[in-house]
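Bug: token stream looks shifted between consecutive jobs. Job 1:
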Amino acid sequence: MKKLMIVSVAVITLIALSVLPSFGCRQEVAAPEEMVDMTFVTPRGTLEVMDDYNLWIADEMGYFEEMGINLIMEPGPADALASVKFVAEGRAEVGYPSPGVLTAGVDAGMGVVMGYEMMATQVFDFAVRPDGDVQTVQDIEGKTISIGFAGWEVIVDPMLVEVGVDPATVDYIVAGDLWGQAVVEGEADVALTWRGLRAQWDAVGLGLDYIIGEEFSDMPANGYCVSTADLEDPEARQLLENFMKATSMGIHFTRINPRAAAQVTYNLFPA
């Protein structure tokens, strides 16, 4: 019996050691000899945000290198459709458009498709003055909406249609980087905002209230768009699959250790 117990313990130990890397330890994988440049373009005109944390983590931890990818991060111009235009024109392999921007690109004949959905819920919101006339999303009808750049209408219009508000009844005001302040100063009734930006506006004391998009909209959030032509090319498709694997690893890392992921991203952009 004693020998049987010893053998049993040895077998269990061997099994545990054999599966351990799958659960807790990352196995070292040799990077491919030849790295392939791959460009990701944001829809914001800046990289100094937390939104791309999973890509920064995947880069920091070497996940992209393991997949043979040399990732190039491009902030993109202020053009609202840039994140789909760049992909359609072959200037980037992956873009990060909102659903409205993606569908606008498809409607314009661009050969793009959503290849990877980052978040399953709406992240865009509306900011309003606490003492203003707009208290519900339906109150936006006939009002003025402040946006940062021309073309952001394609983000807002689908949200309005979803709740029965005709986009033709609203007027858009392009206010640049101060589009939130435009509402505070009474130059607009509503401002487009989103989850992370709400925290920033609160931190600087704008004192705005928010109509939360997730509470009235069933649309998803931004996702990674890819070229339909790349999906037909075996090598390009494999590159995209490797990109998605690496970013999934970055997301999983963050689920396990969100503080580390936040710190890595903050350290990249101290300002």
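Job 2, same session, no restart:
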Amino acid sequence: MFCPKCGKKLNDDAQFCGSCGTSLAGRVQPVIQAAPPVAPPPIQKIVPPMAPPTMQQPIPPAAPPVMAQTPPPVAPPPPMQQAMPNQMPQVNYQPTNLQFEIFGGNLPGVTIKLNQGESIYTESGGMAWMNDGIVMETNMKGGLMKGLGRMMSGDSLFVATYTSTLPNQEITIASSFPGDIVSIKLEGQSIIAQKSAFLCAQPSVTLSAHIAKGVKTGLFGGEGFILQKLTGMGHVFLEIDGSLVERVLKPGERLKVDTGNVAAFEESVDYQAEMVKGFKNVLFGGEGLFLTTLTGPGKVWLQTMTLPGFAKQLIPFLPKPSGN
């Protein structure tokens, strides 16, 4: 505040001027109003620019409702006909796991259990006994040429097929020579066997003739030029002279066997005849002029006895005809 007379600056609550003594009573002091607070400027939000509107794919019209159709009635399958014991069922044979039992020791036989529709075939006259629910059919399996091949390899021209018409039927086939019976399950591979080794097999196994490789092998291998070949899927039974020994040859492994003691071998095994070395070995060794060599890989089945060797041992004991 200032004095109105002399202009000196005074306090706001002064009653008189200290410089000139002018009374200040009754004067209305000006009221200075504070300026209203200034509001801060509003904060503006930065809004990102909006993406341009995209074109919407048109919604395809709804498919018309499909009316449920009632399927046509299916005719029931024809009833299965039960084969009678004297009727041969017509079946498309598939190999199965046979149930069998080999018995008899040195005079062996094999009893095979057949379910309904299962079959086994053997050379004519090989069956020993069977249940009444098994029927027999004799034919030339594979035709004339295969029949002739079987006959040249030591078996008969005709084979007998035995088929079960009832569940759990048994058939027994006996070996024709003292020895052993071996069961081999083929899974597509081939087995070469000596003459007359075949006993019986499932119909899915094919029996045919096999020609030995090389003139020397055919003449001096001990089994001749023609052997038996078994190919297919399923079980096959072979009869072995004497006792049976099985060997598995590694690739390149060689085994020398006396002629005639080879019962069977896998087709992957190389089968050859080899001349015995040494003049004294040939004359006095007692093993003959040739030996059979088997070279792996593959499995071989050996036998301890040969039919010609057994017959040779019996000759001195056979009665001789007396001269008149």
